[in-house]
Amino acid sequence: MLLSACGSTSAGANGVASPSPRRTSASPSPSPTALGRIAAFAGRPRSGDGPSGSLRVTGTRAVALTFDDGPSPTWTPRILALLRKYHVHATFCIIGREAKAYPKLVRQIVKEGHTLCNHSWDHDEFLNQRSTAYIRSEMTRTNAAIRRAVPHASIRYYRQPGGNWSARIVRQARSLGMTPLHWSVDPSDWQRPPARSIIHTVKSTTRRGSIILDHDGGGDRSHTYAALKVLLPYLGRKYDLIRL
Ligand SMILES: [Zn+2]
């Protein structure tokens, strides 16, 4: 299946201060402070300074990794294994149709402590041109598919495919209890640039508070996977990596 851009809008600079001092090792699990922050973020949908008021940065010094367009039977298990290896938790923006096809992978994502995000039913990049009822049905259908896999799953984020936000999309996401989630670092990995290019973009544009956009689904993610082998230990040394 060929899906197009999550990151078709430009990411730009972060607007957050310079990189944090190097840390000696990746945290084996979220620190008490990080857990406190996660608890503080649970609850009402948040606003941010991204398009249409979506969240573009974490709001703390911590950096968040996000993975879009899965779950993929080929790549999601491999990326989950890498995240386990480096003790990193991330946020997975899931397509409803894929959740329906691969419920076991949704269960594995949740079981391994990652955060869920709704990424529409079928990666509709033109939701901003559709009716309120249609937008809402795409969102609720996706949440229902996720919850068929994991009853009572917490789905606190929504990410619009293509980053094509509108006020109406944001309103509907919020009314369903989901924070609209954008990003601030985009290596355009869905376009399959060489791993070294993904690595360079992420290293050179990540700052404190960055939300990094990557993909575990939507096609051949071998370049993303190769880049993550370098980026996970690098980012883990340099930043607190949090799930949202
Ligand atoms: Zn996407």
TrEMBL record:
NodB homology domain span: 61-244
Name of the protein in question: NodB homology domain-containing protein
A Gene Ontology BP annotation from the UniProt entry: carbohydrate metabolic process
Classification of source organism: Bacteria, Bacillati, Actinomycetota, Actinomycetes, Micromonosporales
Matching CDD domains: CE4_NodB_like_6s_7s
Domain of life: Bacteria
Residue spans of biased composition, Polar residues class: 1-12
Disordered, as annotated region: 1-35
Molecular-function annotations in GO: hydrolase activity, acting on carbon-nitrogen (but not peptide) bonds
InterPro entries reported in the protein's UniProt record: Glyco_hydro/deAcase_b/a-brl, NODB_dom, Polysacc_deacetylase_ArnD
Origin species: Actinocatenispora rupis
Cited Pfam families: Polysacc_deac_1
Bias kind Low complexity: ranges: 17-34
